[in-house]
Specification:
alpha+beta, 115 residues, Phosphorylase Kinase, domain 1, protein kinase activity, Protein kinase domain-containing protein, 4 strands, Ser-Thr/Tyr_kinase_cat_dom
Length: 115
Amino acid sequence: QRNLAKEIEVDAKKRGVKWITDRSLAYKLIGEWISSQGARNNAHIDQDSFAMLDLIGSGNFSDVYKAVTFIGSSAVICSVKVMKTQDPGAQFEFEREVELLSSLFHPNVVLVFGR
């Protein structure tokens, strides 16, 4: 996965992609993109929209990856939670968590969107 990260970085430089390192700017950019997609918790975001860089956490129900996504000509580092189970109870809890967290919009709270 480290090679993938390097390939993405090299490709981004070739294409003139601006890496967003300022958290407030990234938050604003993602918020605007989400608004353009409709309601945050209902927006379908294809997993292929993200390049998974590193596994940063793992639990009983999901894995969390450090990932990069491109919004226009900007690259934004984010985390992606991927469900590991098809258990209906776990899916229900996950959906509840997404619904609750996606209703919050504050720089000190992680921005949650998509399903």
